[in-house]
Amino acid sequence: MVAFSIGGVFLGASVGQLVLEPELYAIVFGLVGALTGLIVTPWLTVRPIRAIRARLLNLSARKLVVGTGGLMAGLLVSALVTFPLVQLPSPLRDYLPALTAVLFGYLGIVVFSMRTDDIFEAAAALFSGSGVVSDGGVGKTKRTLQPILMDTSVIIDGRIADIARTGFIFGELLIPRFVLNELQYVADSADGLRRQRGRRGLEVLSELQKIPGVPVRITDMDAKGTREVDAKLVVLARELDCPILTNDYNLNRVAELQGVTVLNINDLANAVKVVFLPGETLDVEIIQAGKEPGQGVGYLEDGTMVVVEDGEPFIGLKTHVMVTKVLQTSAGRMIFARVTAKERET
């Protein structure tokens, strides 16, 4: 405001000399300059700083380190290029060095950011003293752990802890602060069932942190401009170029439509279930009636629902049935069957 006010005074004095009233014009232009400075100052100071701060908060530490290294490398290259440029005649030698520094600094950041994983792999191999690790005599390149974003539903589900114990998780489990806040909100719910599910999710997180070989990290990275947790997860996954671990069907569909890789626990569970083909037989205990008249419903040991045609008379009995159709989706697997002729006779 002071700078604009002083500039207005000098401008007003210069204009006022043309009409022989420099004092009046200096005062008026000074006040207008002060008002302009008061309005414009936040756009030149506070708002840019806030935007830069928000951008830095959303950046992962890997990209921040690599980007800084790229900037330093670009400035070093520009310094080498500056020597011949300063020999050029004026005004080229006055402006080209600065433009070269900006250009090479930008190129350094972009190139290094695009090769983040390769740079970290090379650094890990350099500091470890060896670029490969042996496994049965076969050399394999070391890889850095890829972050995997976790959804609230997969934490509450609890199966991720059992999967992590088996050693099938290759990556760093990344839990954003807003997911943890939602989990805490569920744990503090007035509804007894929701409160129990939320507390189970907190217990699962505690178990995950104790499993050796499975790094778990809580991050403060956030997605500005969105309020829903699912939308924030998709935005963060696109920025970090990492998958989302979930068992939420709707989040699965939304993320796939936006090109984000999804690791669905239900898909994994279906993949390891025993496969039944139409025509095969199995034994199932029918425990309740189905939605359609005459239907019976039973469950296999892995929780797969079996809908048995004309199975209502066999409720409470272990029945030999033949598979007629298998329906499989991300929400689960369902088997349709009918009672075998031999079972009907007995």
Explain this structure:
The chain is of the alpha/beta class and 346 residues long. It folds into four domains: 2-44; 60-116; 145-270, Rossmann fold; 274-345, OB fold (Dihydrolipoamide Acetyltransferase, E2P) (Beta Barrel). The chain has 14 helices and twelve strands. It has helices spanning 2-16, 22-44, 46-58, 61-85, 92-114, 116-128, 152-157, 159-166, 177-187, 192-210, 229-240, 249-257, 265-271, 341-345; strands spanning 132-135, 138-141, 147-150, 172-176, 216-219, 244-246, 262-264, 281-289, 296-299, 305-309, 318-329, 332-339. Strands 5-4-3-6-7 form a five-stranded parallel β-sheet. A five-stranded mixed barrel has the order 8-9-10-12-11. The N and C termini lie far apart (96 Å).
Distance between the termini: 96 Å
Order of helix and strand elements from N to C terminus: HHHHHHEEEHHEHHEHEHEHEEEEEH
Summing up helix and strand content along with how strands pair, one would put the structural category as alpha/beta
Helix content: 40-55%
**What overall geometry do the principal axes of the alpha carbons give?**
elongated
Q: What portion of residues belong to β-strands?
A: 15-25%
Mean pLDDT: 83
For the sheet with most strands, the description reads: 5 strands, parallel
> Mind telling me the CATH superfamily name of the largest domain?
5'-nuclease
Fill in the CATH topology of the largest domain. Answer: Rossmann fold
What are the salient characteristics of this protein?
five-stranded parallel sheet; 4 domains; single chain; 346 residues; alpha/beta; five-stranded mixed barrel; 55% helix; Rossmann fold
